[in-house]
Amino acid sequence: MAIPEASTIWFNGALVPWHEAQVHVLTHGLHYGTGVLEGTRVFPTPEGPAVFRLPEHLRRLERSARMLRIPLPHSVAELTGATLELVRANGHQSCYVRHFAFLGYGSMGLDMRHSPTDTVIASWEWPDYLGGRALRLMTSSWRRNDPNAVPPAAKGTGPYLNSALARREATDAGYDEALLLASDGSVSECSSENVFAVRDGVLRTPPASAGALEGITQDTVLTLARDLGVPVRVENLLRSDLYAADEVFVCGTAAGVVPVASLDGRELPSEEGELTKRLAELYRAATTGGEPRYRRWLTPVHSS
After folding, report:
1. Has the keyword rRNA-binding been applied to this entry (predicted)?
2. Among the four 2, 116, 241, 266, which has the fewest Cβ within 10 Å?
């Protein structure tokens, strides 16, 4: 999917024209995957555009950098201001925001200590990451990274090669998205979304110990479900648990809440089950300011 270009990017502390946000070909992060990232969204609300759960995303960026020993030269407060400045400069009412910090040009080799950190914030309009329809999933032959090899709590750039290979395999086979299993065969997550299963009214999702990212949208969905009085469990799932589920859906910042129609050619009872529909509607209300209980999750782009 081509990126719809915006006018500016925030790069190392300043707004620069989109095409001038460039790095050297010997950038450390380009060769070794030494970077951390976040995906955040801006939604239109009655009071103007607002960033959804921006503090949580930036705290996770800071935590990821600390875990991977990548010095982050800007504070959460500075990155918050820069994010709002960028979205205002690009004139977005609704957009995707990519926060990205990586080791830049200065040294080569696996020794990480001698390369400076570059920090980037970019925004662009990206309405339907997964096409806006119920998904057909395929279990990938690629296994999710072992959590003892790559910490799933850190959203690093290097481990996304695993996701890219799985997604390519699935789309080449005619599916919409890949489901990855952990090394022990338990369900982990999709290439860039957390996965949920509903059976007998109970909502279940895999834990971080299965290699799944502790998703902010996943946490949002769990909160919404609890507020609806739905029993939730974060626990290990087998692939057969998804086959036997009444409903399956995925969620992520880029995707939102998206129902799953089938897994490995096995049709689910409904393309969009009742609970999936209720959660998707409540998620839309929370992100767009339509539900007062969740206004705390919104950071206005324009100060009053």
Report:
1. no
2. 2
Rounded to whole angstroms, how far apart are CA atoms 160 and 168? 12
Q: How far apart are CA 43 and CA 288, in angstroms?
A: 6
pLDDT digits (tens, 9 = 90+) for 252-263: 998 999 999 999
Confidence of residue 303 (pLDDT cuts 50, 70, 90): confident
Task: Exactly one of 53, 155, 167, 204 is catalytic; name it.
Answer: 155
The proportion of the chain whose per-residue pLDDT surpasses 90, expressed as a percent, equals: 90
135-287 belongs to which homologous superfamily?
D-amino Acid Aminotransferase, subunit A, domain 2 (3.20.10.10)
277 included as an active-site residue = no
* Domain ranges in the chain with CATH number 3.30.470.10: 8-124
For residue 153, the tally of other CB atoms under 10 A from its CB is 12
Quote the CA–CA distance of 230 and 203 in Å, as a whole number. Answer: 7
Provide the angle, in degrees to the nearest 10, between the axes of the packed helices 274-287 and 216-227: 110
Beta-carbon neighbour count of residue 117 at 10 Å? 21
Task: Fill in the amino acid letter for 259.
Answer: P
Question: At 189, is the secondary structure helix, strand, or coil?
Answer: strand
Q: Which pLDDT belongs to residue 1?
A: 67
CATH level 2 (architecture), domain 8-124: 2-Layer Sandwich (3.30)
Tokens of 24: 């050297």
Residues 6+ apart with CB under 8 A from 184: none
Query: What does the block give as tokens for 25?
Result: 């070909």
The residue with tokens 């979205």 is 87
* φ, ψ dihedrals at 92, nearest 5°: -75, 140
